[in-house]
Amino acid sequence: MRFLGIGDYNDLGDMYLRLMAAGHEVRVHVADPKRRDTLGGFLTLVDEWQSQLDWVSAAGRDGIILFENVNAGHIQDRLRQAGFAVVGGSREGDRLENDRAYGQAILRALQVQTAATYEFSDFDDAIAFVQSHPGRYVFKLNGTGHRSGDNYVAELDDGADLIAWLETSQRRWDRPAAPHFVLMEHLSGIEIGVGAYFDGTDFLQPACLDWEHKRFCNGDLGELTGEMGTLVTYRGAERLFAATLGRLKERLRHAGHCGYININTIVNEDGIWPLEFTCRFGYPGFSILDSLHAEEWDKILYRMAHQGGGTLSTHSGYGIGVVLTVPPFPYQSGYQEMSKGLPIMFRGELTANDRRNVHYCEVAMKDGRLVTSGVAGQLMIVTGRGDTVEAAQAEAYALARRVVVPNLRYRTDIGDSFLQRDCARLQRLGILEMLPPSP
């Protein structure tokens, strides 16, 4: 088979490596010049993806295009209309993710309860709103190209910290376009995501559940990073899926959406509250889900690209993914001087199972040695799988301790909050069905 990967940052690099290891041809276009050394020495890069379309077409049904971004849905739609097999998203998927107020409106139209959401394109208007309606809100920028740390979850009930954040953001705003953001009512409860692969006509089953750990430090302290690790399972999502993501089937089918889609929610005694969409392969979420896949990416992608539908073969139990980083992650400034080009080594020989559980991100092969690359220091994800959360944790962290890189950092509590609090509360609420066993 032939796969053409298209994106800005080489986010699906680990998937490309696994497709290559299975004997397939892979070419990748990385738009951002600063990211082109990511997985250097491993991948074949192309300067212009358009010039590769004949190469894809020559493979017939075995030629598949993979899109990483959530701002190229219109291009994907056009390529599908031209007869190409494309996996990634759609124009509608882009809007669901990038226009947060639109995503919430669509959910309300499908009879899904949502948190109060207020849309703004002026910081002064937002400040005046919080002054007139004191409370806790979550500040979220619309669109792409923003860091996770550009958003803010207010802590004070009177909104004073949010007003200060808005004033600071206004002083720092240096982009030519006006800001476009929402203030969403803050909800207390358990944060949990539900996701599934959509093949253009229907969802592959089962759906998955995920518990992301977005902040940099243990105990959910520090910066919002996007993701420092995640607990996942492909069991027990039936009720959450039916109440949220499953209701979008006809809309996604009409849009021709083909790819992964996820809804992040808050669950509490008042029900299920969808927060936001991810309408693309989650990064690094796709690697963490791979720990529970009983079939390889080539088969999954082929079925999605050609509307094969049906059941995704998955393992029971839980998967754990831990993101391994070096300074200055989650920032970029100073990476060249602090950490780029450092050697990466492992204690002892890696078994075949170990290698399956190592998912490379910002690394490269240089002069026969594995080194750090890229722009920020998100090196790799290590994963583990088990019938219980504890077993998955044990496998993932045993592997993490074998990675040797100067100044390596990672969270050591991925899955702990689920074990200590969330699992029991979710069972009391009756949100989950067929939850895998855990003490």
Structure description:
This protein has 439 residues and is an alpha+beta fold. It has three domains: 2-96, Rossmann fold; 116-185, ATP-grasp fold, A domain (Dna Ligase, domain 1, 2-Layer Sandwich), CATH 3.30.1490.20; 190-429, ATP-grasp fold, B domain (D-amino Acid Aminotransferase, Chain A, domain 1, 2-Layer Sandwich), CATH 3.30.470.20. Helix content is 29%, strand content 27%. The chain has 15 helices and 20 strands. The chain has helices at residues 13-21, 53-57, 73-81, 91-98, 100-109, 123-132, 160-172, 238-243, 249-255, 285-290, 297-305, 335-338, 352-356, 389-400, 416-429; strands at residues 2-7, 25-30, 63-67, 85-87, 117-120, 137-141, 152-153, 181-185, 190-199, 208-217, 221-233, 258-268, 271-278, 318-325, 345-346, 358-360, 363-366, 369-372, 378-386, 403-404. The strands form five sheets. Strands 13-12-9-10-11-14-19-16 form an eight-stranded antiparallel sheet. Helix 3 (73-81) runs antiparallel to helix 4 and helix 6 (123-132) packs antiparallel against helix 7 (160-172). The radius of gyration is 21 Å and the shape is globular. The termini are far apart.
